[in-house]
Structures are given as structure tokens and as C-alpha cells.
Design brief:
The chain is mainly beta. It has one domain: Metal Binding Protein, Guanine Nucleotide Exchange Factor, Chain A (Beta Complex), CATH 2.170.150.70. It is built from two helices and ten strands. A seven-stranded mixed sheet has the order 6-7-8-9-4-3-10, with no helix packed on it. A hairpin with a 6-residue loop joins strand 1 and strand 2. The radius of gyration is 14 Å and the shape is globular.
Amino acid sequence: MNRLYQGSCHCGAVRYQVELDLAAGSGRCNCSICRKLRFWGAMAKPDSFQLLSGEDALSDYQFATHSAHNLFCKHCGVHAFHRGYVEQIGGAYVSINVACLDDVSDEEWAASPVRFADGRANQWHETPVIHSYL
């Protein structure tokens, strides 16, 4: 069931709200940036996301195909969400860093199924053979 969540970076400069169904699942990916960040994401459509404050605090890092805006707070360095467009995963998206949601109980986090994606091989719907480190 969809619910409206509040999220933020560590210092609170970046704040947003997003409508998500955490029970529908979250994900971890082995692409180069997600692996290094240990990013734990939940996908949302752009119209389900609203940046409440901190546009001026965001820095944007792009690499390779420039299909993702790996946004992070320039004050505390936290990646609270990313934006992008990848046809293989349904087009435009906002990937919410689940760990940055402020109003999630431990029980909700634990109950959210985690899917693993082989982004390193651009096989987004495949699970990497080894994924326990994600």
C-alpha cells in the first residue's frame, strides 16, 4: 500500500516527500556507484516525488552514459535520492535512498523485500550470482 514518506539528508538541508509502497520492495545494485555507496533504493515515478527544500544544496555527479543524476548534499555528502532515465527499468525514475526516509519504523525496513540487480552487466532484471556484499 502506498504511503507518503518524508526523507532528508543527514544535515537536513535537503528534504523531500515521496509516495512509496515499501512492501512492494526495494533494491540493491552492483553498478559501480551503487556498490561504492551501498545505496539502498526504492523506485518512484517523478510525479510521486516532491523536493521540499534544498535544491541549492544539491550537487550532481554524472558518469558514463549520463543517464542518472547522482545527487548529493554538498554540506553533509549524503545521497538522499537520485534521478534519471533508464529505458530498461521503465524510463524516468527517482531512486529514493531508503535509509534516508525519516519516518520508517525498523519493522517496515525489515519487511521490505530486497531485490538485487546486475547493473554492472546492464542486466537490470537479473540477480548477480554473488550479491551478499550488497
